[in-house]
From TrEMBL:
Signal sequence extent: none
Binding site for dimethylallyl diphosphate: 226, 259, 309, 407-409, 451
Keywords: 4Fe-4S, Iron, Iron-sulfur, Isoprene biosynthesis, Metal-binding, Oxidoreductase
Encoding gene, per UniProt annotation: ispH
Full protein name: 4-hydroxy-3-methylbut-2-enyl diphosphate reductase
Protein origin, superkingdom: Bacteria
Record family assignment: Belongs to the IspH family.
Amino acid sequence: MRVEARALRRGLPPGAPLRRTGRGPARATRIADGYRDTGALAVAGIAGGLVPTLRTGDVVVATEVRRAGVRGGAPVPCPAAPMIAEALRRRGLTVHLGPVVTSRRLVDGRMRDRLAATGALAVDTESAALLAGATGRPTACVRVVADVPPHPLYRPATLGRVVAALRVLPEVAPALVEWAEATTARQVVLASPRSFCAGVERAISTVEQALDRHGPPVYVRKQIVHNAHVIADLQRRGAVFVDELTEIPDGALTVLSAHGVAPAVRDAAAERGLPVIDATCPLVTKVHSEARRFVGRGNTVLLIGHAGHEETEGTLGEAPGRIALVESVRDAERIEVADPDRVSYLVQTTLAVDEVAGVLDVLRRRFPALTGPSSDDICYATTNRQAALREVAAVADVVLVLGSENSSNSRRLVEVTERGGTPAYLVDDVDSVDLRWLAGVRTIGVTAGASAPPRLVDQTVAALTGLGADSVREHTTRTEDVHFTLPKEIRTS
């Protein structure tokens, strides 16, 4: 309608291409022929809400657009919907993701209920017709809700709801501009290896097996791995995550996280008689063993790592006062030891190789007798993911790293990429991708930290196809075949 076009125009920059179709599927079908050669097409306006959870002024971003009453008619997918939704939420709008259905006529009463039963969130009379010929091109559909159930449509109050919805439309326009500017994407390059490593798979399986075998609740000290999606999935199954053993009821089954713990934690669990399953990654267990061996020789141990990380806290706890943390080159230049001829070093498993190299150069210069582990402490998965991403970043305009903020190995992937000169962003999932990062880019690199589920990569790649990325290729530098056995407490024969 003309009023919709005026509202959208107020939110668009001068000269932005905006066309008014008129109301109804017949007009929309006729005018759609004029958009056959358009590079990207977005439909926006107001719509009727189909479910009672919607409110006037809420925004529905279509994940697909359907045509009501047409059997066998394929819905038009809108893969970039999660990123458009993020752009709208950033503007303070209440946003819902789901199907939008197009009807030949205004919908009320039982017809509204029937369409809601199909899973659609909103109904309009133009979107499916306008997008029908847009196959293979970036498409988007954003509708602001006017009338909502259970309020009848044909009442004077509906006019007020329409006016309220029109007031929101100018806020929708800038998000669509961000989407349009990102539709330059042509290729996604996936770094491989990526996502779960053997230690993470072992830790997650440990909790899952404990839940299956003993039933909920199963208590886990700290996050089993550092990923918000993994934690939420396990919580839904009955896992309870706590910071300290004091939060665990007497006799409750307790799992220790993949990052390892200090001996004092094990002693405290034993004193309380807590049944414990240790899900510590075997590579972290190796570092603990090396710490005990070096300290047993009378050496001062310099642990290269980050303060506050659970892995470093656990290693430091092996010999308080005998293990010192070195976080940076500056720390390496300033640290003093009692006997320079008895010094060893260890490394947090999730650090970047080049980050550690600079610190080690200083330590070796200052302490020529410095000894280290027999094999590299940095986890094979960390090394492999960083190596693969370096090569992907060399051909990408921007890199997206799937992983949570508290994931050390995921943050290192971002840092490795940025040190190579390519912009990189750490995101929990596709909902966190900011379209402004992708404006004007053609090649997008994608990887995931060792604690991030593979499905997050799949969802992100699917959304990027909604920006025009019609080529997805895998760049593999190494094939991983490492597997760790489960803890003996839950191992099946």
